[in-house]
Amino acid sequence: MTDLQALNDQYAIHGYLNFVAGPAGLPMAEIHTRHADALVAVQGGHIARFQPQGAAALLWVSRISSYAAGKAIRGGIPVCWPWFAQHPSDPTLPFHGFVRAHMWHVRGAAVLPDELVQLRLGLNDNEDTRAIWPHAFDLELVATVGP
């Protein structure tokens, strides 16, 4: 699910989490807590920003990142899977694996005790991923924003 209205209808948490169109229209989760703010790209499960309240942002993202569908974001905290760096036997495959350039699915969102906000994203194998890596998988990223 990548339609912003549908994502917000199902997963937004008033005052804590909402989905916005990021650069190039990619869906991004904006998370705000009394502890920190974060920005998570649904594509790639990529943490693009983390900034403790009253402090400078802790993550760097390149100004030349295209934020285009199917292109990995440069910087932040990427998910590099199922390999890191160049593929060990096929240099034509994507650097740092392929999941960072695929659209993930939102699986859940919650406010936890002490106003921590948790976002769960997932990615399953499909026809496109099996063309690159012929294995079944079910990945889940749980991002918890807090102190």
Automatic annotation (TrEMBL):
**BP-aspect Gene Ontology terms:** carbohydrate metabolic process
Gene Ontology cellular-component terms for this entry are: cytoplasm
For this chain, one GO molecular function annotation is: carbohydrate binding
**Which InterPro entries would you find in this protein's record?**
Aldose_1/G6P_1-epimerase, Gal_mutarotase_sf_dom, GH-type_carb-bd
Protein name per UniProt: Glucose-6-phosphate 1-epimerase
Organism of origin? Kouleothrix aurantiaca
- Top-level taxonomy: Bacteria, Bacillati, Chloroflexota, Chloroflexia, Chloroflexales
